[in-house]
Amino acid sequence: MLELEGGVRRVTFPLPLGIDHVHCYLLPGSDGWTAVDAGLGVPGARESWASTLEEVDGSVRRIVVTHFHPDHVGAAADLAELTGARVFQGVEDYAQCVQTWGGDRVLERVPEYLHAHGVPDDEIATFRRESQALGRMVRFAQDPEPLAAGDTVAGWEVLHVPGHADGHLALLRDGVLIAGDALLASITPNVGLYPDSRPDPLADYLSSLELIERLAPRVAYGGHGVAIEDPAGRARELIAHHHDRLEQAAAALGERPQTAYALSYALWPEQLPTALRRFALAEARAHVEYLVLRDEAERSDRDGLVEYSAVS
Ligand SMILES: [Zn+2]
């Protein structure tokens, strides 16, 4: 555990995913700690939290979930049971959490979307296996307390910073931003268009980055990687990155329609594990749909196959 500015503690857990660790935070308060994110519900997650909590004085009074991705929400139920603390989560985010990980989730939703965008059947089969394994590591807390932009939790202002996830929340106090995955130091947060998500996540994300630039926190602590010492500068860098990416996407489009899967190879030609290729596909869609929504690209849907081309 690492002590940061303002008495904030950072707790890091290893991850068996494409990314090898996740940070959770403990924010000090007059009545005890506020935990931000819970990590993935790997076997032993509860024990890891239990030994972490032994190192701090005082108890965890509440748990804030920044967004429903498995590495952030996965062990929320374990941490809640362990501490007796209430979980706070955005309303939109919780709805997507239930839709993605809940008992009555529609298992064919993602395979259908992958198929429509040109993903080969063998990669869809890999997705099914991986998503089952991942689903076993997500134990989110049922019926959390709703949290929304403008709320205050333990003296921290709640911000809505959509893009990486539609309902992504962050916390700000005294120039310290607990950013979740809305801002990361060394990697570009994935901005993808997924089934049943908001239609223009890239525009959402650019607005979130502009908000961070305006608020200009002194430091930001993200869900992965090192602290961000110049959050406004990092936000500007990411805005420029996405504008470059939009230009690349526009340049990759031609007269002949191509799927978002094919387009993902134009943008990320390197060999990627299938899970990362799915992120690339969703990210390619976020960019090309941004262009479609501004009449700078065309989408066609023929017999359930979605393809994109340059404006004719
Ligand atoms: Zn994450």
Describe this structure in words.
- By secondary structure, the chain is of the alpha/beta class.
- Helix content is 39%, strand content 21%.
- It is built from ten helices and 14 strands.
- The strands form three sheets. The protein has a seven-stranded mixed sheet. A five-stranded mixed sheet has the order 8-9-10-11-12, with no helix packed on it.
- α7 (201-215) runs antiparallel to α8 and α9 (260-267) crosses α10 (274-293).
- It is globular, with a radius of gyration of 20 Å.
- The model has no long low-confidence stretch (mean pLDDT 96).
- Zinc ion is lined by residues 22, 69, 71-72, 181, 223-224.
- Zinc ion (ZN) binds at residues 22, 69, 71-72, 181, 223-224.
Order of helices and strands: EEEEHEHHEHHHEEEEEHEHHHEE
In order across it, which strands form the biggest sheet? 1-2-3-4-5-6-7
CATH topology: Metallo-beta-lactamase, Chain A
Fraction of residues in H or I helices: 25-40%
CATH architecture: 4-Layer Sandwich
Any idea what the shape is? Answer: globular
CATH superfamily: Ribonuclease Z/Hydroxyacylglutathione hydrolase-like
Total separate domains: 1
Instruction: Specify the structural class.
Output: alpha/beta
At the first level of CATH, the class is Alpha Beta
CA-atom Rg in angstroms? 20 Å
Say how many strands there are.
14
What's the average pLDDT? Answer: 96
Q: What fraction of residues sit in β-strands? A: 15-25%
Biggest sheet record: 7 strands, mixed
Give the end-to-end Cα distance, rounded to a whole number of Å: 56 Å
* Count of helical regions: 10
What compounds are bound to the protein? zinc ion
Which stretches are poorly predicted, pLDDT < 50 over at least 5 residues? none
